[in-house]
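Review box. Two proteins, two foldings.
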Amino acid sequence: MKKFALAASAALVLAGCAAGGMFGPAPKDGELAMPTDYRSWPVFLAGIEKPTGHIRDIYINPTGAAANKGDAFANGTVSVMEIYKAEKTGDKMTKKALEKVFVMYKGNNWGSTAPEGLKTGDWVYAAFEANGQPAKVDYATCRGCHLPLAKDDYIFHYDKYFDTRKAAKLDGVHAGKVAMSVEDAHLAALATR
C-alpha cells in the first residue's frame, strides 16, 4: 500500500511538472504576487537615476544573487525594481515617494505564455502600485524594453551589476551575496562609474 501511495504521489508531481511547472501551468504576466520580503534581499543596484525624474532601486533574491557573470540567472530568480519619484537640485537627485514596483520572475518555461515576438526567455512580469496593489500596465511595453537584452538574460544593468559586485568585495564575499544597504550599494555603484 505504501509503495502504491509513493508511486501515486510521484506520478502527481511529474504530471504537474509536465503541465508547465510544479504547481500547474506557467503563469502569465500580472498573475504572480509581489514578494513581501524583497527589501531583505541583496541589492542588485541602487540609486539608478533616470532623466524622467525617477530613481530606481533593484533587489534580487538569493537564487539570482548566486549567478556568475556570463551565466543566465537560474529558475527561481526574482528581481524587484522600485521606482521612486525624484527631485533634482543642481546635479543631484533626491528620492521622494515610491511610485511603482515592477517584478520579474523566472521559472521553467514561464515565458511560454508571452505573445509571439515578445518572449523574453523564461521571465514573466508583474507591476504593483506603491501600496502593493496590482498596477494596470501594458506588459507588452515591459517585454519590448527587455527584448533586446537576450545576451544578458533580458536583465538591464547585467554587466554593471557584476562589475559592481566585483568592485565591492567585502571580506571575500561579493556584494551580491550579502544584504547590503541601499546606500552601500549606491556607493559601490558610484565606485565603478
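Next protein.
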Amino acid sequence: MVTERVRGDVRRVTLAVAAAGVCSFALLYAPQPVLPQLAEQYGLDPGRASLAVSVATAALAIAVLPIAVLSEIVGRRPVIIASVLASAVLGLLLPLAPSFEVLLVLRAVQGVAIAGFPAVAAAYLVERLGRGGVAAAVGAMVAGNTVGGMLGRLASGGTAGLFGWRGALAAVAVLAFVCAVLTVVTVPAAGPAAPGGRAPLRGILGGFGLALRKPVLLAQYAVALLAMGSFVALYNAAGFRLTGDPLGLSPAVASLVFLAYAMGSVSSVVAGRLVGRFGRRRSLLCGLAITAAGTALTLPDSLPLVIAGFVVLTGGFFATHAVANGWAAAEAPPQARGPAGGLYTQAYYLGSSVGGTLGSVVYGHAGWGWLVVTVTGWLLVAFLGSLAVRAPSAAAHSGSEQPAADRDDRGAQPLVVPQRPRHLP
C-alpha cells in the first residue's frame, strides 16, 4: 500500500513538471514563427521584430537568480505555481496588445514569470524525490520543455495563416493555460530544503558560494553554456541553410525542421534511464559526442543528411541537458540547490543568447562549414571539462578501479523512489 502511494506520488510529480515545461516553453517561443506578420503589421525590420522573442529570453536569464533566492525563502512549490499561472495569463493578454511596444513590455514581464519554473524545477525534484529518483523525473521535465518548445512554434506557425498572429498567440496561450491548471492540481509540496527549514539570507548567500566552489557543479554550468550555445547557433542558421542554395526549400517547408525536437523529448527520457545503468559522466559524454556527430552530418549539401543531422544533434543535445541538469541538482548541497539550479539555468540561457549570436556571425561571414567547426570546438571543450571532473567522494574510494563519478552515480537508479512520500498536500 505504501509502495503504491509512493509510486503514485512520483507519477504526480512527473506529470506536474512535464505539464509545467510544456506551458513555459510553448509560451516562451510562440512568437518566433509569427515574426514576419509582426514585422508587416508594425513596419519593423527583422531585427526589431525579433525583440518579441529576445526580450523574453533576456528577462528570463536576468530573473533566474533572484527567483532562485526567493524559492529558498518561500519554497519551490509556490514559485512553480505562480510561474505557470502568471505566464499563462500574460499569454492570454498578448493578443490584446494595442501596439508593438506594449507587446514587448508584456513579453518582458512574461519572461520573468516563466523564469520561475526553470529556476527551481530541478531543486524541487531533488527535494521531493531524493537523489535516487531524480534522473527519470528530470528526463520527463526536459521532455516537457522540448515538447512545449516544439508545440509553441508549430501551433503558432500553423494557425497564423488562418487567424493572424493574434489568433496564433491566443491558441498557444489556451494550450499553456490548460497545462498550467494541470500543474497546479498535481504538483505536491517539496521536501524540506535543509534540516533547519528555509535558510536565512546569509545562508542563501552562502549557498551561492557553495554552488560556485564545487568543481562538478562548475562543469555542469559549462556544459549548459556551451551545449546550448551550440544548439541555438545551429538552429538560428538552419533556415538560411535550408532555404539557400543548393537546398532551396521554401520557408514553410524549412520550418518543419523544428519537428526534430520530437527526438529531444525521447532522448531526454532515455537519458534518465541510461544514468541509472552507466552513470552520469558516461551518459553526459555520450550525449555530447552524439551532438557533435549530428552536427558533422549537416555538412554535405544533401537534404536527407542535413535533416538526419538535425535529428541526431537534437537528440544528443537534449540528452546532454537532461543529464547535466539532473547532475547539478543531485550534487548541490541542500542549502545550495536553489542557487545551483539558478546558476545552471542562467548559464543555459546565456549560452542561448551569446552562442546563438556568435554562431550567426560566423555563419554570415564564413558559411556553414565554419559554423560546424566552431560549434564542434565548443562541444569539445564541454566534453573535456566533463571528462576531467571527479566526484567529491573519489578519494574515499581510491582503492577501486572504477571512477567514482561513474560508480557513485550508478546508484541513482531512475525508478527508485523515496521510502515515504514527503509533505503530501
